[in-house]
Design a protein that fits this description.
Pfam family, one: Metallophos
Domain Calcineurin-like phosphoesterase: 1-50
Oligomer: single chain
Protein name: Calcineurin-like phosphoesterase domain-containing protein
Shape: globular
Helix content: under 10%
Number of strands: 2
GO molecular function, one term: hydrolase activity
Length: 52
């Protein structure tokens, strides 16, 4: 299990793409990504950021 914490993205989730966040490639359902300070509607999150 891994825990990643980032600050407010201000709606710009590009820092979470594999190009910038290399660890994303190895994330599993056991891992956590905590984004502090953001409030967004769930319908705006691109499906590419939803880990299934």
């Amino acid at each position: 299990m891994a825990i990643f914490i980032t600050g407010d993205t201000h709606g710009d989730f590009s820092r979470l793409l594999p190009v910038a966040f290399h660890e994303q490639r190895d994330l599993t359902k056991e891992d956590y990504l905590i984004i502090c300070g953001d409030y967004i509607e769930k319908n705006i999150i691109p499906k590419s950021f939803i880990l299934r």
